[in-house]
Amino acid sequence: MQLKFFSLSPLLTAISLALTLSGCQLTNNNTASEQVESNDTAAIETCGAIHTSEEELTECELANEGVFDVIHPNDDLLEDASELTAPAEVEAAVVITDVWERASAHFELPIPDDARVAAQRKWYLKHPEYMARVVKRAKPFLYYIVEEIEKREMPMELVLLPIVESAFDPFAYSHGRAAGMWQFIPGTGKRFGMEQTWWYDGRRDIIASTEGAMEYLTYLHKMFDGDWLHALAAYNSGEGRVLRAVRNNKRAGKPTDFWHLDLPRETRAYVPKLLALADILKNKAQYDFAWPEVENVAVIDVVDIGSQVDLAFAAELAGMTLKELHSLNPGFNRWATSPDGPHRLVLPLDKAETFSNALAKIDKKERLNWVRHTVKSGDSLIKIAKQYHTTVSVIKQVNELDGSMIRIGQAIMVPVALQELDNYSLSQDQRLARLQGGQSSTPKLRHTVKAGDTLWDLARKYKVSTRELAKWNGMAPGDMLHPGKTLVVKLEGKSKSGITKQLTYTVRNGDSLSRIASKFSVKVSDISKWNNLNAKRYLQPGQKLTLYVDVTRLSASG
C-alpha cells in the first residue's frame, strides 16, 4: 500500500477557532489574569458573530468560558498528511484496528457528574464536524503519541490533550506566546528541552514537544502527589497558581480536589474539556457519536540525517513535495534544518529507508546549495547573512572565521536555499508574510518599527487593541519589538461596502491636511495615522502621502 497525499483544504472555521483551548503554562499571575480577561471578551464576541439563537449563544459562551484563542494560520498550506497509511504487511498483523479504540480501552480518569463537563460534552456532541477536522489533522502523529504515553505508563487520556490545546495543529499559536501542538510558552519549552533558535523551534517539533510534554506532565504529577487533575490544571495555568489554590483551601478548611479550587476561568473549563472528550470517546456508541477512526499502525518514521540539509533537497530525495515534508517537520523555521540540530527528519514510513540509503551516499557539503560571495565595501557578516537568509554563526563556521572582521575582496562561501524562498511556504518568514498579507477587504498600512516602539504605544497611536495588533502580525501582546521589523495595521474604520484603494498623493502649494481630507472624503486623523504625521506641523510641497480612499464615495461626490 502506497502512501497518498492530497491537498488540504482549510480545516478550521471561525467556530473551531473560538472553541479551542491554549494551555500556556503561565506562571505569572498578573499576565494570566489579563489574558483571560481579554480572551473572555473575544470568545463572547465570536459567539455572537456565529450564533443567532439565544440557546446556541448560551451554549457557545459556556463552552468558551475563559478560553484563550488559538490561531491556525496555515491550514490551507498544510498538505494532507492525514492520508498516510501503513504498508499492507503491517496492517495484517494488527488486532485492534483503531488507535482511538486502543487508547480508550485504557482510560482511567473518573468522569464526574459535573455541570462543566456536561456543558463541554454537549457542545462536542452537537458538533461532530469539528472532531472530524481535528482527527484528520492528528492522523500522522496519533499512533506515535499513543506509543509514547504507553511507554511511560501514563493515563491514556493524555492523548486527548492536543485536542484541548491546539486541535492537533503543530503550527497553532496563542497570544499568550504559546506555540505548537502541545502549546508551550518559550520559557517552559526551554525548561523541558525544546530549543528555540532562528533556524528551529522545538515547540512545534512533534518529537521534541511530545517528549517535553510527557516530561512536564510527569513532573507535575509527582509535584501534586499523584493527582492528575491537579497536574493538568497546572499544565494550563502554572504549578505555582495551583499550589497556592490548594494551600488556600487547606487553610480555609475546604476540599482541595480540582473541583473546589479557586482557579482562572480558563483552567476551570480546561480540565472538563478533556474529561468530556474522554467520556464521549469511551462511550461513543452510547452517545451515537461518529468519532473518526485512525488505523492502529505506525505511518511515520524518524530518520537520522547527521547534518544540516536543505528541505527542498531532502524532499526531492524522499520523493515528496516540499510542503509534504515540512508539514511532517513543522519545527524548522527556515529553508533548511538547523546547523546545530536536531539532525533528524520525520518521514512517511515507506519512504524512510530509501531516503536514508540515498542520503548516506551524498557528502554533507552537497546537502546544501552554495554561493561564493566576494566582500564589497560596506559588507559585514550581518549584512551578508541577511542577504542570503542565513546566520552569522553559520558563515563563520563554514569559513573558519574566528572573529567578525572581513576584508574587501575576500571570498566567503555561503549556504543558500536551493529554491526560491516563496516555495518554502511553511517557513517562518513565509507564514508571517501570508498572515500579514492575507486576503481581506479591509485595507492595511505597514509600520516600520523604530527604536523605542512598543505594541502598546503603536496600538494607542493607530487606535486598535494590542491584542489585535499582535494577532495581525503573529505575535503575543507582550513581545518585544525590534527596530526594522514591519508591522501590518488593519484600517478597520474604512467602508466595507465601497472599493478602497491605496493612493499616493503629492502635496501641492497651499495644501493642508483638512483640504486633502475634504478632497478625498477621509478624516484628518486618518491621514495623520497613515503617514505618521504630527497634525500640528505644516505640510511641505512635494511631500508624498499615502491615502486609503473609497473610490465609490469619490465618484458619488464628483
Helix/strand/pairing category: mainly alpha
> What is the helical fraction, as a range of percent?
40-55%
Mean pLDDT: 79
Give me the side-by-side strand order of the main sheet. 1-3
Shape: globular
What is the rounded distance between the termini? 67 Å
Q: Number of helix segments?
A: 25
Identify low-pLDDT runs: 1-24, 26-46, 48-52, 494-498
* Main sheet properties: 2 strands, antiparallel
DSSP summary, beta strand count: 12
Rg value: 26 Å
Strand content: 5-15%
Give an overview in words.
- With about 550 residues, this protein is mainly alpha-helical.
- Helices cover about 45% and strands about 10% of the residues.
- The chain is built from 25 helices and twelve strands.
- It has helices at about 15-20, 30-50, 55-65, 90, 100-105, 115-125, 130-150, 160-165, 185-190, 205-225, 230-235, 240-250, 265-280, 285, 310-320, 320-330, 350-360, 380-385, 390-400, 430-435, 455-460, 465-470, 515-520, 525-530, 550-555, and strands spanning about 5, 70, 80, 175, 300-305, 345-350, 370-375, 410-415, 445-450, 485-490, 500-505, 545-550.
- The protein has a two-stranded antiparallel sheet. Strands 2-4 form a two-stranded antiparallel ribbon.
- Helix 6 crosses helix 13 and helix 21 (about 455-460) crosses helix 22.
- The protein is globular, with a radius of gyration of 26 Å.
- It starts with 5 loop residues before the first strand and ends with a helix.
- The model is unreliable at about 1-25, about 25-45, about 50 and about 495-500 (pLDDT under 50).
